[in-house]
Amino acid sequence: MGNTAPGVGAKPATAARIYDYHLGGTHNFPADRAAARAVTERFPLVPMMARTNRAFLRRTVRFLVDAGVHQFLDIGSGIPTEGNVHEVAQQAVPDARVAYVDVDPLAVAEGLELLEGNEYATAVRADIRGPEAILNHPRVTKLLDFDRPVGLLLVAVLHFVTDDDQAYDVVSRLMAGLVPGSYLVVSHASASPVDANHDDIAVLQDVYKRQTASPFQVRTRAGIERFFTGLELVEPGLVWLPEWLPAPDDPTDFARDPQACGGLGGVGKLT
User: Fold this and answer.
1) Per-residue pLDDT tens over the stretch 231-264
2) The listed CATH number (3.40.50.150, 3.90.226.10, 3.30.450.20, 3.40.309.10) that belongs to domain 8-269
3) What does residue 174 show for φ and ψ, rounded to 5 degrees?
4) Nearest to 71 by CA among 96, 49, 91
5) 3-state secondary structure 231-271
6) Which tens digit of pLDDT belongs to each residue from 179-200?
7) Radius of gyration of the chain (CA)
């Protein structure tokens, strides 16, 4: 996608392709690169935040595989490029199953191309705001067995559901479709009162609102904890992303100041 077809450059930037750009990927368009640069000009740490979030994703997938969960529903997945869920899970369990879901049709198309020949992974287009459409999607139900535990991955996506009531309702309805022994993984931009510069947050939100199709809403620590209502939080609980079971291969960008990563993450078990 780095080589743009005629007319494609006019497409609005999206969170999935901006994220890919921050990770050093090539699956993005001029609008995505322009929006990403606008963000990094004001917030130089954003690419490091993206890498830290991807490292959190890898660690949680490894944790779930070790816990016996071998099928994953990754909503708001973006483009499943290097170091994504299927690579991590299938390295340990070759027949681990992964269904990627994203609202961006170009991310899904690119994902299907990258996954060609992998019978245990697929990508579908759907909006997180329609949980039942995701849970009942024919390709999802063909791949995943919802009578067995599933790892539901909502990594850096819930802050794009800007209405609080809708966001909590979406998570509740998704978890209602899963059996005990399933897990919820969440990472989310944080705006805890003692942790955040609210002027910077307002600027960042404004940049996304003006330059992308994906406005976002940061939430407090308490607001993010609410997504785990009714679940058993896995130790170490809801923490800054670098603090969640750190691994030797993690990026070290925020090793001295974990809260500077700007994101909280946690894993909850449905019992």
Assistant:
1) 999 999 999 999 999 999 898 989 899 998 889 9
2) 3.40.50.150
3) -65, -45
4) 96
5) CEECCCCCEEHHHCCCCCCCCCCCCCCHHHHCEEEEEEECC
6) 999 999 999 998 644 444 545 5
7) 17
Task: Give the integer Cα–Cα distance in Å for 21 and 23.
Answer: 5
Q: How far apart are CA 58 and CA 232, in angstroms?
A: 21
- Indicate the domain borders of the chain: 8-269
Give the bridge partners for 233, in sequence order.
268
**Cα-based distances in Å from 85 to 77, 96, 130, 152:** 9, 10, 22, 11
What's the distance, CA 145 to chain centroid?
A: 22
Q: How far apart are CA 204 and CA 218, in angstroms?
A: 10
